Amino acid sequence: MIKLEDRIKGSCTTILVGKAASLDGSTLIARNDDGHEALDPQRFVVVTPEQQPRHYEAVLSGLKLDLPDNPLRYTSIPNANLSNGIWPAAGINSKNVAMSATETITTNPRVLGLDPYVAAGLGEEDLVTLVLPYINSAREGVLRLGELLSQHGTYEPNGIAFSDNNEVWWLETIGGHHWAAVRIPDDAYVVAPNRMNIDKFDFTSADTLASDDLQSFIDDNQLNPDFTGYNLRHIFGSSSIKDTVYNNPRTWFGQKFFTPEIGTEYEPTEQDLAFIMHANRKISVEDVKYVLSSHFENTQYDPYGHGSVSDRKRFRPIGINRNHNVHVLQIRNNVPADIAGIQWIAFGANTFNTIVPFYTNVEDTPASYRDASDTFDPTNMYWLSATTALLGDTNYEFYMDMRDGYVLEAMAEYHAIQHEVDARVTGSVDVPVLLADANDRLAKMAVKKQTELLGKMVRSGSEHMTLRFNFND
Question: Which Pfam families match (predicted)?
Fold first, then answer.
């Protein structure tokens, strides 16, 4: 059995966008699914009701649960190697409800002294499998997960995102059994790193949910350091030196991109950057991908930049070699419900990849995204993306223009396919078949474009190898 301290990734970054804050009126929940190792192959699959287990047993904790007999179909991004469990990461079910799990967060010893972790409880390995197939709305997702946490407990601190076409919710676990959740305002966004993120919390609001005794748990145990109100980050969070170099700078950079004045009003180390934010424009899927791929561009903290060595190594970037997948779960409001769910996905370190918009109302996924294994295979999208990122890292500035051209061309192709397919959805069309064909086209285009980029990088990079000699040198 893996030790408790080895279960917790502590690596991801989450972005949440309400429907009035997004470019096209969609809800967006997105996350970098990061890990401890640089490589951990991932797959993109569909889990049908027949494939969903009725009797679940967690690999890491040994938790056993009987599950309802009426699961929905849902998408998932599991590990290729299942020896440590499924780790489904994120998906959209057949009711167009999305879930991303999890963002590892932080806590403090006062909380754990009162409500310790439960070694045989729930964890990131389990949550999507146990919740997403059984919910009809984002709010239902919060309530189902909250009930499971209260009943079985958890062995780690996590933040979990839910969305449907109307609402975006964010839930954070507190100690072993407690939790709190906030509905993100329609006109707002959130950038959440590996820390307790919820700040101001109103127990009387219709836009908050929490474990039944959370307020009395705070009051009876004198956990609130503030003179007025409830700030859950102050009460339950860490506020550590690690936060100032590992977590807070990621929020600062994301907020600076969406709300530029943040960059001048606050330092990257600021502990009290607000949870709920409002952008200076409507947010696109491309904006979300940019932030989740970023490494503090145009600041002295960019590891690829020209700042001092100490500045370039000072903060943990958002895009990092340990990105295994990035997903943007989009539930659209301007199209029929049959095609509303879009799971944008990219694999590997995010500096040299593009997200691809896969329709989720399907029974299967393209082989190049579905069939990764631990064996290196450049025809598989995970390994192809990882290879491109590795080569790009050897001379980022040299390869950056090639990357930017590739991103522009590839994203334009994906949008063109999506516009064409959206327009073909009528009452006489077999929609799942149409969408499966569209996903195959999107996957083939993605592999083609990624391979072309890698080829350009290999060809041009070969001219600049150190091991060269000619009489003109």
Answer: Peptidase_C69 (PF03577)
* Interior angle at CA 388, CA 247 and CA 329, nearest 5: 55
Catalytic residue flag (residue 12): yes
- Which two tokens mark 44? 């993109």
Please answer whether residues 347 and 386 qualify as being in contact, where contact means their C-beta atoms are separated by less than 8 angstroms: yes
Q: What is the pTM of this model?
A: 0.97
> What are the beta bridge partners of residue 159?
103, 172
> Residue 223 carries which DSSP code?
-
Give dist(CA 56, CA 71) in Å, integer. Answer: 13
Nearest to 365 by CA among 377, 347, 348, 385: 347
Tell me how far apart the alpha carbons of residues 4 and 153 are, in angstroms, rounded to a whole number. 14
Q: What is the pLDDT of residues 418-457, one digit of tens each?
A: 999 999 998 789 999 999 999 999 999 999 999 999 999 9
Identify any residues that bridge with 65 across adjacent strands, giving them in sequence order: 56
Would you state the structure tokens that stand for residue 17, as one six-digit string? 């966008």
Burial (CB count within 10 angstroms: exposed 0-12, middle 13-18, buried 19+), residue 114:
middle
Q: How far apart are the first and last CA of the chain?
A: 58
- H/E run at residue 358: strand 356-359
- Residue boundaries of the structural domains of the chain: 4-331
Contacts of 282 (CB under 8 A, 6+ apart): 21, 22, 23
Rounded to 5 degrees, φ, ψ at 90 are -170, 155
Q: How far apart are CA 400 and CA 398, in angstroms?
A: 6
Question: How far, in Å, are 50, 175, 195 from residue 235 at the CA level?
Answer: 43, 12, 13
Question: What are the pLDDT digits (tens) for 44-66?
Answer: 999 999 999 999 999 999 999 99
Burial grade of 445 (CB within 10 A; 0-12, 13-18, 19 or more) = middle
> Of residues 7, 9, 10, 12, which has the active-site annotation?
12
**Angle at CA of residue 179, ends 117 and 211, nearest 5°:** 115
Nearest to 122 by CA among 94, 96, 91, 151: 151
169: left (phi over 0), alpha (psi -120 to 50) or beta: beta
Please, what is the angle between helix 381-393 and helix 431-462, to 10°? 30
- For residue 228, report the phi and psi dihedrals to the nearest 5 degrees: -135, 150
